[in-house]
Design brief:
About 60% of the residues lie in helices and about 0% in strands. By secondary structure, it is mostly helical. It has a domain at about 60-185. The chain starts with about 45 loop residues before the first strand and ends in an 8-residue tail after the last helix.
Length: about 190
């Protein structure tokens, strides 16, 4: 069973749950050691039975893999910009829609890969409702995830990094579109 974080706002603080002792303290294999970085206010669980927690040597590998995932996001955005303008003029509206949908699904899969690596690095497990929220409204739920999983001093820089990655993807897509327009001589159609 994966231990959950005790909620300091709950009156019983877990006393009615299995594994609680008579004095109301949790005794589920060190849940206090696994307190959330944000002071226990998180809905995230530390991994216990699912994915193994990162080993000492894994942290550097996870950081490199996370960086590769971010560069892949930017690279795919560039390619999608090239494809949209390069092939866009010869495709029907439904084909362009399908192409955009496939591209967005690819970006979502890469983003989920990054989130899985990040969760593994932090030793936490995202709740199912958050995964569903990320699929439905990534722009809201990824910042929520980032905010809730970082200590107070690191939240601002991580959220700025998220915004920077978004801008980098948009910029890469625009560069890809411009390159395709120059090479093919196709004018870039206005959005909308």
């Amino acid at each position: 069973m994966i231990p959950s974080f005790p909620d300091p706002d709950e009156p019983n603080n877990g006393a009615d749950e299995p594994g609680a002792s008579e004095d109301g303290a949790r005794s589920n294999n060190g849940a206090a050691e696994n307190a959330a970085p944000s002071g226990g206010e998180s809905n995230f669980e530390r991994t216990g039975g699912g994915a193994p927690p990162p080993q000492a040597g894994d942290n550097g590998d996870l950081v490199q893999r996370k960086q590769k995932a971010l560069w892949t996001l930017i690279g795919v955005s560039l390619v999608l910009g090239v494809i949209d303008v390069g092939l866009g003029g010869s495709l029907s509206e439904s084909a362009r829609f399908t192409l955009a949908l496939v591209g967005n699904v690819a970006l979502l899969v890469i983003a989920f890969h990054w989130l899985n690596l990040d969760s593994r690095q932090l030793g936490i497990r995202r709740p199912t409702w958050l995964n569903i929220g990320i699929v439905l409204l990534l722009i809201v739920f990824v910042p929520y995830y980032l905010y809730k999983t970082r200590p107070a001093g690191q939240r601002g820089s991580v959220l700025l990094g998220f915004v920077a990655v978004l801008f980098a993807c948009v910029f890469a897509s625009a560069i890809g579109s411009a390159l395709a327009a120059v090479v093919t001589g196709t004018p870039i159609a206005p959005a909308g």
